[in-house]
UniProtKB/TrEMBL annotation:
PROSITE patterns: PROKAR_LIPOPROTEIN. Coiled coil: none annotated. It comes from Lentibacillus halodurans. Pfam families: NMT1_3. NCBIfam families: TRAP_TAXI. InterPro entries: TRAP_TAXI (IPR011852). PANTHER family: SLL1037 PROTEIN (PTHR42941:SF1). This is TRAP transporter solute receptor, TAXI family.
Amino acid sequence: MRLLVVSLFLSVLVAFGIVGCSNSETSGSTSSNFSIGAGTTGGGFHTGATALSNVINDKVSESQASVQVTGASVDNVGLLQEGEIKIGFSSTETAYEAYKGEHQFDGKSHDKLRTVFPGWPGVYMFVTFQESGIENIEDLQGKSYSSGPSGSSNQVFADRVFETFNIEPNTSNLPTDDAANALKDGTIEGFSIAWPASAVTRLETSHKLNIVTLNEEQKKKFSEVYPQYLWLSIPPDTYESIPKGVENFGLYNLLLASKDVSNETIYEIVKAAYENKDMIEEVMPQMAKGMSMENLGSTTIPYHPGAVEYFEEQGVEIPNELLPPGSE
């Protein structure tokens, strides 16, 4: 009789949510409404999150995803670790440093981070007007410059470049569209952003731009300090300012999730995204192309089990070092 009373009592507690169940790597609750951690408007993360939310809202049953404006890469890994968002975009170097607790995350491992799928390569740009006379990053000394939104990989990269080469601009951290507007009205003389970026395309409709990158000598020195960055290309004819294209340091952008998100939720998101890439291509062609199965190795932290399940169903084997901790 006493056992029956205790069992009934516990059942009531569970029913009213007084007693909860802990999440693990292989389980978790599924919520039909959630935000995608993006970045500021005008940047690639915001465009990518918009494309993904369109797919989720149209193709994932009983789910509604909204785009959440954030500080981008660094901000998003923090929000994921704290459980404030379920999925969000970041970059390979930020994800790696956060997961390992290195550099700016020294001693603060973000161990809940998991990869959902690769996004697209991002190439850093220092954007100025041609009339400014800024041709080299060293010309930014003492200039008014937005290094990127606080918590973004743009800010981290720009600050590391300035520190490496002892350049001291008068920096601010404006959201992408605000930085573009500030450049137009003369409040600043340049800003950092990563390709692809709609803000740069819009600027070119009314102004002639200089897109400044590191030269070969600077490339060598920076690589010695930060070997985790990739040397990537912006294709020809992407921008009027660089008709032949240009090379600079960059990274791969990724969709990340918290390990606490259920396998079912992540599986359904990945399935919808990969089986409706045409919808993503309409909004962001670079993201649709970057999601190729051949690019699944372009991440620096383990995959979420729900993503692994989908990719293995497609006959793709995830490298052992990218499997979730505890996987065989």
